[in-house]
């Protein structure tokens, strides 16, 4: 029987965050072992579910030692990295031999001891399984793909949608290439190229025609070339200060022909030429609030996206600048998700449903991004913070935000959670009995992923960047010391 090692170790590391990513961060989002992986992940719109389904359809035996996914944050601790790497490599040795390996990774993992987490993981895995076993990895569209990753993985395939709604399709594609490799039909190799860019292709947005969709079209055309098996374009994750941060193009070819690298280089030339084009412009807080004041709720709520404090990019999730402006403007029929403040959530729980509380809300991790707000509010809901995502993105995935409350401050219902999560699904509101369709204004701490669920409901969308936040687009406000220089937009125009 064909035996496949399947594992997942995902993290998007914002190296400017002061909050390290440890095992507790994985436990707060997803950390499963052995048979629990199939129990938790089968039926979800995720890569491990697709890997397992593919193996079942082929009659292959899948061995699943570990799967973990933590909210974006600071560098992964060395202890945490070693736990994952050792668990995967020990399984490769103790439960092997395996015919192939399929890994669900992110591609922008930086650790305390290495800035190339995926490259280090793959190096340890190769030491355990040898050079001949085919390895396929799936990556996020915002991966910072290194040469080491491409050299050690035969198959590298990245998401093609942002919001990411194609995890199943991408994992199925990777598994299909593994099948062809096992039959001897192909001998895949991966080729990656980068440019002098910190960010590009419109941050990877695919919800409207633009640089990313054009680059993906060019990548698709390469599939007509002899020997080309798969192509990917990654927008990179600019909030990681690593040498190889930035957009990349990947070509998986049959064999090690140098022309595959040339194709990737040509794709990167197109990415470079499009570097100044944007499909979404951010607006300052005051302009967004002025628009929100006139929102009437006809045709759906006005959706404001808190771009500068997006937990999906490593933001702390407790920045208060936008919420403070909403309160000062006395906005009505509004809802806000989420403020991560376990202390405030605990106060709400202790006082109980219907109570009026006075507390300092948010701004506790780094007040530079918005100091705590002294608020008086009514506790209108108390939940365990547990629910299942409706999708389209990551449908079926279970979420546990810990003790959660809804605090109504004036005309604004604020979801106060104990853990950091990006509010990209209506369930972040609905689980707390907030009907987003009945609100004039909805605020989500998200930059793009929210569009999958909220764009069909919205009368309009405004992406707000107040300039103060860990995920603000003002890259020159950060101090980069490791990224290659010169680079756009820090040095080059």
Note the topology.
Layout: E1 3-10, H1 23-27, E2 30-33, H2 35-41, H3 47-58, E3 61-63, E4 66-69, H4 78-94, E5 100-105, H5 117-129, E6 135-139, H6 147-152, E7 155-158, H7 167-182, E8 188-194, H8 211-222, E9 228-234, E10 248-254, H9 259-273, H10 285-293, E11 302-306, H11 321-328, E12 334-340, H12 342-351, E13 356-361, E14 373-383, E15 386-388, E16 398-400, E17 404-409, E18 412-417, H13 427-430, E19 441-444, H14 451-454, E20 460-464
Parallel strand pairs: 1-3, 1-4, 1-5, 5-6, 6-7, 11-19, 11-20, 12-18, 12-19
Antiparallel strand pairs: 2-4, 8-10, 9-10, 13-14, 14-17, 15-16, 17-18
Concise account of the structure shown:
The protein is an alpha/beta fold. The protein is built from 14 helices and 20 strands.
Overview of this structure, please?
- The chain has 493 residues and is an alpha/beta fold.
- It folds into two domains: 3-273, no CATH class; 285-472, no CATH class.
- 28% of the residues lie in helices and 23% in strands.
- The protein has 14 helices and 20 strands.
- The strands form four sheets. Strands 13-14-17-18-12-19-11-20 form an eight-stranded mixed beta sheet. Strands 1, 2, 3, 4, 5, 6 and 7 form a seven-stranded mixed beta sheet that branches. Strands 8-10-9 form a three-stranded antiparallel beta sheet.
- β17 (404-409) and β18 form a beta hairpin.
- α3 packs parallel to α7 (167-182), α4 packs parallel to α5 and α8 runs antiparallel to α9.
- The chain starts with a strand and ends in a 29-residue tail after the last strand.
- The mean pLDDT is 97.
